[in-house]
Amino acid sequence: MTLEQDGDMKTGLILGTGKFELREVDNPVVRKGGAVVAISLCGICGSDIGAYKHGDDSPFAYPPAVCGHEWCGVIEDLDPEIDYLAVGDRVIFSAPPPCGTNCTACRQGKYSACSSIVAAFFGQDGFSPNSGGFAPRQCVDARRLIRMPDEISDIEGAMAEPASVASHCVRRSGLLTGDRVAVIGAGPIGLFTLQAAAASGAQDILVIEPSATRRELARQLGATHVCAPGREATECIGDITRGLGVDQVFECAGVAATLQDATTYVRQRGTVNLLGLSGVKAAIDTDSWLVKEIAIQTSLGFDKADMEAALVNMTNGSINTKSMLTDTIPLENLESTIKEISNGRDSVKILVDPRDIS
Question: In this protein, which residues make up the domain named Alcohol dehydrogenase-like N-terminal (predicted)?
Answer without folding.
Answer: 33-150
